[in-house]
UniProtKB/TrEMBL annotation:
Residues in the signal sequence: none
Protein origin, superkingdom: Bacteria
Residue span, Bacterial bifunctional deaminase-reductase C-terminal domain: 6-186
Pfam families in the cross-refs: RibD_C
SUPFAM superfamilies, alphabetized: Dihydrofolate reductase-like
Record protein name field: Deaminase
InterPro entries: DHFR-like_dom_sf, RibDG_C, Riboflavin_Biosynth_HTPR
Length: 195
């Protein structure tokens, strides 16, 4: 039996379920040392390439959980504006956008059919697939999301971009783990029972 790769939506969120403010900013989420150390031990590949050395992740550190990252245009744009055309150079990078052209040969821009693309990716050999954002893309990909890993920070935004930005049918997940941290953050891991 062929084992399919798993799609994980791994993202930071506020207590009230927002991954960004109404303007799409997410730089207010705290970088808590305790959360960072725990998550980087399991998912070092989720740290952008430009910051890995600064926090002690060597260039030759193997990817542990993912070898592919998926982004919506709004998730990709902040790095692009900062001059990071290939933010996760240590991963296969796919950006879903109908308006963007690839500014870097290492970034694949896909204009249509996110679900079909993910279904093909799942058939390939490799590690897991990381959906790093955003909420609209997550809504499209919900039928293929096998795992949610939510770094929930003790912030309330009141408005913004929710975990799932479009209306979606009810989709049940089961809580696999809840890790609490001294900083007040909680990392919640949910699995899709049908995966």
């Amino acid at each position: 039996m062929v084992r399919l790769r798993k799609l994980t939506y791994y993202v930071a969120a506020s207590i009230d379920g927002f991954i960004a403010d109404p303007a799409g900013r997410f730089d207010f989420f705290p970088i808590e040392a305790d959360v960072m150390a725990a998550m980087n031990a399991v998912r070092p590949e989720a740290v952008p390439t430009a910051f890995r050395a600064a926090i002690g992740i060597a260039d030759d550190t193997p990817n542990r959980s993912y070898d592919t990252v998926l982004m919506g245009r709004h998730s990709y744009t902040p790095g692009l504006e900062a001059g990071l055309t290939s933010p996760y150079a240590h991963l296969r990078q796919i950006v879903f956008s109908t308006t963007l052209t690839s500014p870097d040969p290492a970034v694949e821009v896909v204009a249509a059919d996110p679900l079909g693309t993910v279904r093909k990716l799942k058939q390939e050999d490799g590690l897991g697939i990381w959906l790093c954002g955003g909420g609209t893309l997550a809504s499209h990909l919900l039928p293929e999301i096998d795992e949610l890993v939510i770094k929930q920070y003790p912030l309330v935004l009141g408005a913004g971009i929710p975990l799932f930005a479009d209306a979606v049918p009810a989709h049940r997940f089961s809580l696999e783990e809840a890790r609490t941290f001294e900083s007040g953050a909680v990392v919640l891991t949910y699995a899709c029972p049908s995966s």
